């Protein structure tokens, strides 16, 4: 008698993004950075998704809705994050729920990243590319999502309110440039400005502009000095007359005016 397997017992197909990484992306990164060992190639380690629920301290249904939505998006039940200490200005006590978070690894991580870059990000309104400056200096990238509605798993009519997400992608890269090349090869749509590796070019361009401005200022100063030597009278400072001399001149002018008036009256 042949054993029949149910749909749940069948092995899930391997993530297509992981297959692409192993077959294409790893070779591209090795050729660009010259890795001598395959273990040196940077790869994804984990993906952390956070959702803040500050309203949960007043209504428990908000926390339940956030847990359900994040579980549908990630395919894994999230953990509740609670406040570590009390903050009176925010009306928060220690132990209150302030958010939910989930950490994805393995096949779920690859599937989530695949859905993120292939389906969710293209549905963002007025999208102009991901910010390439959001690396933390150690090869990890963070991005913010304003609406959970960009994920097709969320039913628009069933949500109570629009919530945002924070997605942090942790890689094994030792620098931001290597992590950027990894994510770019996987299909992340980064904008053209501010990419890692181009900062040095911008600094060199700025240094070149400053050097040209300095040389231009020196040339203008040398030309001014030459003009002063050729025509010193034109650039000589005018000496102001002293107060006494001004008074004498004024008196002489006054006498001249009086004499002129006398001559006119005599005529």
Structural class: alpha+beta
The average pLDDT score comes to 81
Query: Which descriptor suits the 3D outline?
Result: elongated
Uncertain ranges: 247-255
What is the β-strand count? Answer: 5
% residues in beta strands: 5-15%
Strand order of the largest sheet: 2-3-1-5-4
Q: Estimate percent helicity.
A: 40-55%
Give helix and strand order, one letter per element, not per position: HEHEEHEEHHHH
**How many DSSP H or I helices?**
7
Distance between the termini: 151 Å
Tell me about the biggest sheet? Answer: 5 strands, antiparallel
Question: What radius of gyration results from the CA coordinates?
Answer: 37 Å
Give a verbal description of the structure.
Helices cover 45% and strands 12% of the residues. The chain is of the alpha+beta class. Strands 2-3-1-5-4 form a five-stranded antiparallel sheet. Helix 1 crosses helix 4 (176-186). It starts with 15 loop residues before the first helix and ends with a helix. Residues 247-255 have low confidence and may be disordered.
């Amino acid at each position: 008698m042949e054993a029949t397997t149910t749909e749940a017992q069948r092995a899930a197909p391997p993530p297509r993004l992981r297959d692409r990484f192993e077959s294409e992306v790893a070779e591209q990164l090795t050729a660009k950075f010259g890795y001598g060992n395959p273990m040196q190639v940077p790869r994804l380690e984990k993906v952390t998704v956070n959702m803040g629920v500050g309203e949960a301290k007043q209504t428990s249904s908000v926390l339940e809705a956030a847990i359900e939505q994040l579980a549908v998006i990630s395919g894994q039940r999230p953990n509740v994050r609670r406040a570590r200490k009390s903050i009176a200005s925010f009306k928060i006590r220690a132990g209150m729920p302030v958010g939910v978070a989930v950490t994805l690894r393995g096949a779920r991580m690859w599937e989530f990243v695949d859905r993120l870059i292939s389906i969710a990000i293209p549905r963002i309104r007025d999208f102009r590319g991901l910010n390439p400056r959001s690396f933390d200096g150690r090869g990890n990238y963070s991005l913010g999502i304003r609406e959970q509605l960009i994920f097709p798993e969320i039913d628009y009519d069933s949500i109570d309110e629009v919530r945002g997400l924070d997605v942090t992608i942790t890689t094994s890269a030792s620098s931001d440039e290597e992590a950027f090349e990894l994510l770019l090869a996987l299909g992340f749509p980064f904008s053209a400005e501010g990419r890692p590796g181009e900062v040095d070019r911008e600094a060199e361009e700025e240094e070149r502009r400053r050097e040209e401005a300095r040389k231009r200022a020196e040339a203008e100063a040398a030309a001014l000095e030459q003009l002063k030597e050729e025509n010193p009278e034109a650039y000589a400072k005018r000496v102001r007359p002293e107060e006494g001399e001004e008074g004498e001149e004024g008196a002489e002018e006054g006498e001249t005016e009086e004499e002129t008036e006398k001559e006119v009256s005599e005529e």
